[in-house]
Amino acid sequence: MKAIRIHTFGGPEAIVYENVAEPQLKAGEVLVKTAAAGVNPIDWKTCSGGGAAAFIGDLPFTPGWEFSGQVIACGADVSGFESGDRVFGFVRFPEAAGCYAEEIAVPAEQICLLPPSCDAIEAAGLALAGLTAWQALFDKGGLHAKQRVLILAAAGGVGHLAVQLAKWKGATVIGTASAANHDFIKDLGCDQVIDYTSQHVAEMVSDVDVVIDGVGGKTGIDALACLKATGTFVTLPSNTKDEIIAAGEVLGLKVLPLRVEPNAAQLRLLAELNAQQRVRLNIAATYPLEQAADAFRDIASGHTQGKVILTV
């Protein structure tokens, strides 16, 4: 079968589309014929030697942690799935999962049946960003109805799903984005939009209950001023989390980092909301699997509106 692999860490030029051995099904696993795989910043960062590179083991490495597809076979001790089922999931993170491949063997406990009305291409990009948004808003942030949430990078992969989930929860949603994305995030449910290129967020917003920081660095530190004293600030970029936590401690504020975790129960809720069209994934672009290098170049720009998807 065909898969994307790297044999050495590097940029898009390190990406190789080649023949690999078919996966061996183990107990507790489901063999899936892949329909599509989501492309995320963690993918290209890991392939370049950062991200989750410390967890993936020896090279060669096949990137990808989220997918959609159809069940081919089930291993021993698997129940709830059968051949022909449409499924999607976010699996094994931060260890290697190998979703950029024609077939994958995945833990049954980390995947979910895909409702008939859900599109497989859309579902391929929903799991990682959707779980990140869910866990940031609700598990870490404790967001509930009638609270106010500020979402930095509201037009991005995680951000645009966080806007929809927060609105579904009944919160007042404030989002930052460039002017070109204002209509997009307003349509998703943003009650207030801030142009980060021309406005200072700390001058525009104060006393919010939850901040979801999808940017990090100085932008994240500046946004600490928007949080109320009893609020929660959730920062997503791992490379700047320590400095933002330290800045929050100086101000006496609660700052929490997040490493997204596989969670089948939360996937089921996301799938239900997607089937009801309460939460939709905006697909910025799709590429065939063999053009994964081009997909990496696209997402590395940091300006995609929604998600980039590889079709298999």
TrEMBL record:
Give the Enoyl reductase (ER) domain ranges: 10-310
Sorted alphabetically, which Pfam families does this protein's record hold? Answer: ADH_N, ADH_zinc_N_2
- Entry GO MF terms: oxidoreductase activity
Top-rank taxon, per record: Bacteria
SUPFAM superfamilies linked to this entry: GroES-like, NAD(P)-binding Rossmann-fold domains
Q: Report the PANTHER family cross-referenced here.
A: ALCOHOL DEHYDROGENASE RELATED, RETICULON-4-INTERACTING PROTEIN 1, MITOCHONDRIAL
User: This protein is called what?
Assistant: NADPH2:quinone reductase
